[in-house]
Amino acid sequence: GAGVSQSPSNKVTEKGKDVELRCDPISGHTALYWYRQSLGQGLEFLIYFQGNSAPDKSGLPSDRFSAERTGGSVSTLTIQRTQQEDSAVYLCASSFRAWAGGPYNSPLHFGNGTRLTVT
Amino acid sequence: AQKITQTQPGMFVQEKEAVTLDCTYDTSDQSYGLFWYKQPSSGEMIFLIYQGSYDEQNATEGRYSLNFQKARKSANLVISASQLGDSAMYFCAMRDAIFNKFYFGSGTKLNVKP
Questions:
Q1: Which chain A residues have any C-beta within 8 angstroms of a chain B C-beta?
Q2: Do the Cβ atoms of A54 and A97 come closer than 8 Å?
């Protein structure tokens, strides 16, 4: 079946411009995450959506970053007034929700990422 | 507080030998899941193996096994008979029960030498 889809795969933008990154999760997945990854580095958590609950925005690095998830499906990560330090790969991931007393074995499925370059 | 700790930023292993990648975690929950992912230089994140907190036996998937020591809160990944294609970054992750949220370690970069 279809996996997590991210678009665009590459984005080059000028410093100061706004960008929107899109994520289409796997159908039925209630959890959606955004991560940022610089070259050779680990995953930096940005934001987590779980069903209709308020999103966990604790990882957003500044108020220039925001994300929304419409209809519990597609998500858009917006970066306003981009800076050169925003250059990275932005990864989206989704999973089913595990339930209390049930298995927690539903893994996160990742998209191929959007490589953002700010010039 | 950091939930997942991977203390080996980089490791080398000779081809055909076994290697253990360390992972410790911190939680007060009784129910949780532990995962390992592989990220080759191509960038894709590949799910390798899962261990549930109530599973009594260590998980195995082909050449991958998870050495789960619940009392020590460790979930080490063991790769047997390393291959050149195993060269990649490896991430340990935990899914907690309270927020149903995933936490990732900082990763271990494994290089397999011919």
A1: 31, 33, 35, 40-43, 45, 48, 50, 56, 89, 91, 93, 95, 97-98, 100-101, 103-105, 107-110, 112-113
A2: no
